[in-house]
Amino acid sequence: MAALVSKQITVIVCFAVLDLLAVIAMGLRFYSMTVVHRKIKIHDVLCIVSLVMLIAYSIDLLVGTIAGGIGLHRLQVPIPTMETGLKAFFSSQFFWAISIASFRLAILDFYVQAFPTRIFQYFAYGAMTIVCLFFVGSITTTLAMCRPIVSNWDLNIHGKCGDEGTAELAAAAFNMALDIGIVVLPVPVIWGLHMSKQKKAAVMATFALSLGISAINLARIIQVLRCSLSDFTYCTADSAILTVAEMAVGIIVACVPMLGPVIFPERRRRFDKRYVYQPNKTSYGSSQKHSRQHSDSQGSTEMALGPGWDKRQNMQYTEIHNKVLPPTPVKVRQGEIAVWREFEVQSDADNRV
Q1: Of 352, 95, 99, 125, which is closest to residue 248 (Cα–Cα)?
Q2: End-to-end CA gap in the chain
């Protein structure tokens, strides 16, 4: 095997670093799930699929780089070696299409679960439909670009091929528009939440990380315009680095909203064990358990008790994880006060309810 040139070494190093960052983000995502006791959901599965396709893409083009001449100028690559590189490039496009569709669907599925507003969900499902259609279009374009298909890599067969440069340019432009649309989609809902402007800005900044994917797609457009496909093997090296960056950043962006308990360790205790108590139908009052645990706390709950209250009847406790139950409607007689309150079981060092 011939010695690798600097361009090929750059491809290998960039692939390794970007893949490692994506794997770390995914590992932190699942560690966060264990902290908050959350079960695996559809968007978690989609992120796994995207990561697997990213690794498959990287391995495929690493083979094309080491054994197929990617990173070398076309005149430096023997025809048998070039055919290996062309095979690797052709198959890599399927891994890319699956990966970007998966992490986008993961982000949109998270939107649907995080913002359960009917109108917003209609827009989110519409965006999912566009993502799926783009995925189908990408696969169809790859399969139909050259006829017969074997002419994509067999240079001895003179097939008919479409304009690959125009197709790649159109795909990058549409990708950029789609990423911007996914970023903008939840902004009206987030801004309408009942929270401080600082927190709203922080939440939107998290989602705005998706603009990094748009920036990568813009760089791909510039790369397509700058580099001639007549030197295919050399141009593919830079394009492959940007493509891996697109997939890796997309996976990281899909994982960031889940990393709160990891990024802010002081908040983990609120997920360790959470109880919500609700009054039953025949009594009002705080339980002896609640009184014993929080008697010294500032701002403890006080209740005005009506006649006939039975102290032997305790509140109904429900242990939950990463979920807040809505208050149960309670009928209140004149002269009585009913209190529903959520509280967290915390360490003695933090003596707050």
Answers
A1: 99
A2: 67
Q: Coil, helix or strand for 305?
A: coil
The tens-digit pLDDT sequence of the chain (353 residues) is 567 888 999 999 999 999 999 999 999 999 988 888 888 999 999 999 999 999 999 999 999 999 999 999 888 888 889 999 999 999 999 999 999 999 999 999 988 888 878 888 999 999 999 999 999 999 999 998 888 899 888 888 887 888 877 888 888 888 888 988 888 888 888 777 766 666 666 666 666 777 788 888 888 888 877 877 778 888 889 889 999 999 999 999 999 888 877 777 665 555 444 434 344 444 334 444 444 444 444 333 333 334 444 443 444 434 444 444 444 444 444 444 444 443 333 344 444 43
Domains of the chain in sequence order = 6-266 (1.20.1070), 273-353 (no CATH)
| Rounded-to-integer distance, Cα 101 and Cα 182, Å | 12
Return the amino acid letter for 93: Q
Which runs of consecutive H residues, i.e. helices, occur in the chain? 6-35, 42-68, 79-114, 118-144, 164-184, 187-191, 197-207, 211-226, 232-255, 260-263, 269-272, 288-294
